[in-house]
């Protein structure tokens, strides 16, 4: 199977067809699966390409699939697609090894970029080289910004973080925007990945 094969896992046939068309138009080979269970049946031995999967599906969800793949020693990078309410689950999946996650709705270019990054994953251990610069960036945050980031990394919603810190959800949004600016993170998933790599969790 080609190393640039993208395995699309979603219980919605229309979404599978749409993603497959988009990716094949961009030059990727694709295979589609209607469930995590179906993908796992043929996952053993796969060593090239990447996975694009919905996080919430009937039966096994994306997080459970990620853990199962790890147990099977299938190390394909995973891009998880999530609804707004599924962000905590997506954060947990990132901690379990998912490469990236995209919140719906996302544009085509965002997905293509995420897949290209996933397919060009650096060798194991390279992350350690990046950890120190990330730690330095996070060290520049104020105590309150650090508290907000910790809540984000734990997958908490803004209103939950606000309640726990005794501030308004709007103020949490301001602090979160400040954290994005100071760290240079272009997306929530990039911010979380940066924090995890730096050992923030």
Task: Give a short summary of the structure.
This protein is an alpha/beta fold. The protein contains 10 helices and 5 strands; from the N terminus they run E-H-E-H-E-H-E-H-E-H-H-H-H-H-H. A 5-stranded parallel sheet has the order 2-1-3-4-5, with helices on both faces.
Task: Note down, in words, how this protein is organized.
This protein has ten helices and five strands; from the N terminus they run βαβαβαβαβαααααα. With 201 residues, the protein is of the alpha/beta class. It has a five-stranded parallel sheet with strand order 2-1-3-4-5, sandwiched between helices. Helix 7 crosses helix 8, helix 7 (143-153) crosses helix 9 and helix 8 (158-165) crosses helix 9 (169-183). It is elongated, with a radius of gyration of 17 Å. The protein starts with a strand and ends with a helix. The model is unreliable at 122-129 (pLDDT under 50).
């Amino acid at each position: 199977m080609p190393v640039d094969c993208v395995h699309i896992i979603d219980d919605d046939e229309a979404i599978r067809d749409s993603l497959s068309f988009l990716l094949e138009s961009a030059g990727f080979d694709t295979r589609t699966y209607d469930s995590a269970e179906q993908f796992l049946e043929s996952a053993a031995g796969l060593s090239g390409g990447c996975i694009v999967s919905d996080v919430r599906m009937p039966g096994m969800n994306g997080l459970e699939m990620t853990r199962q793949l790890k147990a099977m020693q299938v190390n394909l990078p995973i891009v998880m697609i999530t609804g707004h309410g599924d962000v905590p689950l997506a954060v947990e999946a990132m901690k379990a090894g998912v490469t990236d996650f995209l919140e719906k709705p996302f544009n085509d270019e965002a997905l293509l970029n995420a897949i290209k990054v996933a397919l060009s994953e650096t060798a194991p251990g390279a992350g350690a080289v990046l950890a120190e610069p990330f730690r330095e960036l996070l060290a520049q945050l104020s105590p309150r910004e650090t508290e907000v980031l910790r809540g984000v990394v734990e997958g908490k919603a803004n209103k939950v973080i606000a309640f726990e810190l005794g501030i308004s959800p709007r103020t949490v949004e301001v602090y979160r925007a400040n954290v994005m600016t100071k760290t240079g993170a272009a997306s929530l998933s990039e911010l979380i990945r940066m924090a995890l790599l730096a050992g923030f969790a």
